[in-house]
Design goal:
11 helices; 71% helix; mainly alpha; 242 residues
Length: 242
């Protein structure tokens, strides 16, 4: 396995990747591999859904629990940390220095807790009604959205883990992300409804916040991945109508 693949899988999942010396030096160059990580996660999620159906588990609630357990055992809480930090910062008054202080606080604030409850609700509703095909695709969409967001916004901080990764992306990676999203929409036409909902959320809520802090951060990447993937899973199944 190439060093970049080892680095990105060790960083974004809890898979037992055999890390070698120098692998994490390549991490800033691994953003274009986000969709591949999503594909591997999606295959596992598809396998959990198909396996539960094969052994006769008919309860959607039980399948939902199995899916969420499988997802977070595989991916850990790295993106949830971004959700909590960003909700704390997004709802913090003042200039960006105060926002960064709120986001970097090791204690999770009340808004961070609300953000985690919101995402947990999205995840539960999406997984409850999920089809095997949507389960294959939703982790890819979340990670492609993360790639897209760092391709169109500059780094907000002068330092930090996300800065070199963001600086290695641009028009080329944005184009690649849009192509992947188009392919997913061709496979699953309902994706267009999900894309519209995610775009609306970005325009109304997320983009104004990014303007306040003059760019994107590592927490913003995690927030984007976690939020958009579950929104996608819910939207493609008409989840808000069920």
């Amino acid at each position: 396995m190439p060093s970049k693949l080892r680095a990105v899988f060790a960083f974004m999942t809890r898979l037992p990747v055999p890390i070698q010396e120098g692998d994490f030096d390549t991490l800033p160059e691994t953003a274009p591999l986000f969709p591949f990580v999503g594909l591997v996660v999606g295959i596992v999620m598809y396998g959990i859904a198909a396996g539960s159906l094969a052994i006769g588990i008919e309860s959607a609630g039980v399948r939902m629990i199995l899916l969420l357990m499988g997802y977070y055992l595989l991916c850990g809480g790295i993106h949830l940390d971004g959700v909590a930090d960003l909700w704390d910062g997004m709802n913090c008054g003042g200039k960006k220095e105060k926002i960064f202080q709120a986001m970097s606080d090791s204690n999770v604030g009340s808004f961070g807790v609300l953000g985690l409850i919101f995402v947990a609700g999205l995840a539960g509703m999406g997984a409850y009604h999920a089809t095997p095909l949507s389960l294959l695709l939703f982790p890819i969409v979340g990670r492609v959205m993360g790639l897209l967001i760092i391709s169109i916004h500059p780094p907000a901080k002068k330092t930090g883990l996300g800065k070199p990764m963001i600086e290695n992306c641009g028009k080329g990676t944005a184009g690649f992300a849009l192509v992947v999203l188009a392919v997913i929409a061709w496979i699953l036409p309902e994706s267009l409804v999900a894309y519209a909902g995610i775009t609306l959320l970005y325009i109304v809520k997320f983009r104004p916040f990014l303007k306040r802090i003059d760019g994107i951060t590592g927490d913003g990447i995690g927030f984007t991945i976690e939020t958009t993937q579950w929104l996608f899973l819910l939207f493609v199944q008409g989840g808000f109508l069920l």
